[in-house]
Amino acid sequence: MLRRSLSRLCAGEEKRVGTRTVVVGHRPVSETDAYVAQKFCDNRIVSSKYTLWNFLPKNLFEQFRRIANFYFLIIFLVQGYEDWLRHRADNEVNKSNVFIVENAKQVQKESEKIKVGDIVEVKADETFPCDLIFLASSSTDGTCYVTTASLDGESNFKTHYAVRDTTVLCTDEAIDSLTATIECEQPQPDLYKFVGRIIIYRSNQEPVARSLGPENLLLKGATLKNTKKIYGVAVYTGMETKMALNYQGKSQKRSAVEKSINAFLIVYLCILLSKATVCTTLKYVWQSNPFNDEPWYNEKTKKERDTFKVLRMFTDFLSFMVLFNFIIPVSMYVTVEMQKFLGSFFISWDKEMYDEEIKEGALVNTSDLNEELGQVEYVFTDKTGTLTENSMEFIECCIDGHNYKDCISEMDGFSQTDGPLKYYGKAEKSREELFLRALCLCHTVQIKEADQMDGLIGHPERKYSYISSSPDEIALVKGAEKYGFTFLGLENDFMKIRNQKNETEMYQLLHVLNFDPVRRRMSVIVRTTTGKLLLFCKGADSSIFPRVQQEEIQQTKVHVERNAMDGYRTLCVAFKELTQKEYDKIDRQLNEAKMALQDREEKMAKVFEDTEADMHLIGATAVEDRLQEQSAETIEALHAAGMKVWVLTGDKMETAKSTCYACRLFQTSTELLELTAKTVGESERKEDRLHELLMEYHKKLIQEIPKNRGGLKRSWTLTQEYGLIIDGSTLSLILNPSQDSSSSNYKNIFLQICLKCTAVLCCRMAPLQKAQIVRMVKNTKGSPITLSIGDGANDVSMILEAHVGIGIKGKEGRQASRNSDYAVPKFKHLRKLLLAHGHLYYVRIAHLVQYFFYKNLCFILPQFLYQFFCGFSQQPLYDAAYLTMYNICFTSLPILAYSLLEQHINIDTLTSDPQLYMKVSDNAMLQWRPFLYWTFLGAFEGLVFFFGVYFLFQNSSLEDNGKVFGNWTFGTIVFTVLVFTVTLKLALDTRFWTWMNHFVIWGSLAFYVFFSFFWGGVIWPFLKQQRMYFVFAHMLTSVSTWLAIILLIFISLFPEILLIVLKNIKEKNHQTGPFDLPMLVSYKRIENGYVKTEDAVTNLSEKYPLRIL
């Protein structure tokens, strides 16, 4: 059989003669005659359709001959391609080369082959391939600088320290000689916590144990900076690294439109089942009369008549299901996928979303969520690199109450300026110099030197750049440099600065009291060349003012408050002079605290508190964290569109809070509620204190804001606006309270507080916590649509968790844009993406969905009614060609063009008037009310199609000679009225006409006429019956047919035309139409108690009316 098939495949079907000769017994008649045996098939009977080797291709060919099944093929290919792209991105990371130290030599391996315990060498500007314990570096002091922008969004440099006993092992041979073991905690996602110890074994000596903390851990994804190379030992690899634990796998997202389609399909499936049940029941009721039997063209055989009645009823039920199955719009899925895929190109092609700086535009990674962009209720945004450019600028300073401002504000480069300065009054010269020295000394900034050749002179010109764990420290050092005091670096514990007289000053750095979010200040203790001991301290005003002489505060406080109102980040500067005895005590206490393995933080905090007391205030600074262009305007537009904006950042609270004021997330009148380490405290009663604060805030908000059933959106009717600030440690207490906690409902109370605030700031968030916040809001009652936007790998988890994820093509790598649904160059592009593209996508696809259900109901209802006139014999009303071509050719292209090109409101208007976004929010166009309207409209027109033709041609005469027409002519007239009506209905709904709309609408009608003539004008040899032969041509020779078609089309569209006329009249009279969307939204929003008054929404509807039904 296989040989025969291959022979046919290669040589074609063998020729057969008219007769066959069979040789009995396979013996030739004569021995002298040559015997050539003919080839016959063997005696196997094959009734199966497939073989083992042809099943897959043959079955796929048969399946995809059905056009509707292409939907599943498209989904299969699209999802496969998207996952292939992710595999390729993973391979780029996993196959990257790293260097492992083995046997005192460097061995190059692929990153995925690193094992726990391997000693890895990482060079400058390389990314750490796994979580490493820092052993040694090229720096003699055993330090290195890293940037964790891809992890927590902070692009500033952080200092990490090698294990004290291994800092000298800075060569391959030396590090390979190390014998040690590491004991540490099991992998956990918190980026800022690590507990462990290393035990170092030396020959003929006792093992030495050293504690390990987060300052010794180099995280995968972080980048080595300002250090030539480091050695580290792998402790967490692969999916156990902190970055991987903060990564949340990508799940399939479903839009609200898809959920509405599923709900509507259930309704239409019930209609299908009801129709089949009714027809089956009535058929047997009708046939219960002995005079009524199956029609002659559907007569049953005796065997079929003797079949069990229940089985016959079930068979008839299935036949009716097949007859009416076209009411289920399977082809709609194909059209929706095409609309989403083709429509996504409009985002990529938008020139206004193209950024000249990076030479890139917007990118669509997932086209399935286009319409979801028009339904967003909550926006979760990162701060660093998303709202801001992450570049701080020194603006002005205040010394002893006198304001100083630089004439020229420069961000880039280092121009040393000795003056002049704009100032209002002037402090004493000594106080000015003391203030500028404090800025030059009170920081953890490091100097990076670079030799560049001067093209004119030809000798190296030395230039400096600053690196620090805090960008505002760099801004302050640059500010001091503009005023004539330049920090020259730290060498052997001596800080060098150059004063305004170009003289170098040396200060011995004795201690650094590092910044922490609870103290909100940092200090340094230095010794001058004359032996004087000085403590310089800088920090937030609330942290400095209680620790200085109270009579010094008032003048500076005025400037601090003014700068805070302007959105600047303010810091106060203080100092005090120490005696040798005081310093000796502080030095002893600090050393004891640093050596403690238990409660180290608490002990050091106590020493810091005692040391930073009784200081003298010098002045204050104002630093601007420059926002991205139009960030504030974008947030205001999102608020005006009814969306709530939450900022989720890994940055410090003070920096984030200042940015929120600058971008107008917080207004000056906003009362801030804090749930932070400062307000909750670090004592054993912190959970009790948290409970007290939660209940206090909850009670305050309940009294101020009336209870509503929906989530509270930004409102202009509240007497007081509230904003909430929470940090990561407090969020952990809320989401994961201890078992012995007195309250287990922290999460619910916290969520209620958040929903009643106009803005929320979450700072010091780990990536996984960002995702938890998004999930918490997403799973609230009503399932609000959420959107997350960020630019770094630390934002990937929340981008994947939200309904819609937006990646910024920023400076922090492309992890966010690769894992997002959409990527844009800047935050400002979010405005047009949502307010214009999202609005239009939703309106288009909502109309497409409603239109498909409507036109299919119009299509099948006459088929159902016809059964009452043909004895329920399952006789189709339409020809099979019309059944096949209706959704594929006659009505598909017009609605596809509409769903791609329609603009009911100009794009510029949508972008400039954000309140229009609220008109289509909450899935307004796919609610049950508009769905029922479209359903009743389809039922009405279906009745008009059938009974209009039935009553107009009741005498069955068609031609002038009295010749009657048959059921195929009847069905063709109904089908003609149907095609023209549903197509012209779409033409009435179109407001934005292009040449393509004209082409597909009038072209579809012309194609229907041409096809009908062609199909009925040719005798097709492959058809057993030529029942449609010249039916269409004969039909159109009758004047009465022309009049009937025109009349029925007009009657069907008359309600639609009347609705448009009444709407236009009411618009002129400044009234809202009965089916005008703003009225629906107005009612719903006011019922929930969180939107403007009805008059305001009505005024909006007068400008931009939009019907949804």
Please tell me about this protein's structure.
Its EC number is 7.6.2.1. Residues 818-1065 form the P-type ATPase C-terminal domain. InterPro entries: ATPase_P-typ_cyto_dom_N (IPR023299), ATPase_P-typ_P_site (IPR018303), ATPase_P-typ_TM_dom_sf (IPR023298), ATPase_P-typ_transduc_dom_A_sf (IPR008250), ATPase_P-type_domA (IPR059000), HAD-like_sf (IPR036412), HAD_sf (IPR023214), P-type_ATPase_IV (IPR006539). By secondary structure, the chain is α+β, with helices and mostly antiparallel strands. It folds into five domains: 2-58, no CATH class; 96-245, Calcium-transporting ATPase, cytoplasmic transduction domain A (Distorted Sandwich), CATH 2.70.150; 331-347 and 837-1066, no CATH class; 378-386 and 628-834, Rossmann fold, CATH 3.40.50; 388-409 and 421-625, Calcium-transporting ATPase, cytoplasmic domain N. It is built from 37 helices and 33 strands. The strands form six sheets. The protein has a ten-stranded antiparallel sheet with strand order 17-16-15-26-25-24-23-22-21-20, sandwiched between helices. Strands 13-33-32-31-14-27-30-29-28 form a nine-stranded mixed sheet, sandwiched between helices. Strands 2-1-3-12-4-10 form a six-stranded antiparallel sheet. Helix 29 (892-901) packs antiparallel against helix 33 and helix 31 (928-952) packs antiparallel against helix 32. Mean pLDDT is 79; it is low at 6-14, 407-424, 451-462, 708-718 and 1071-1109.
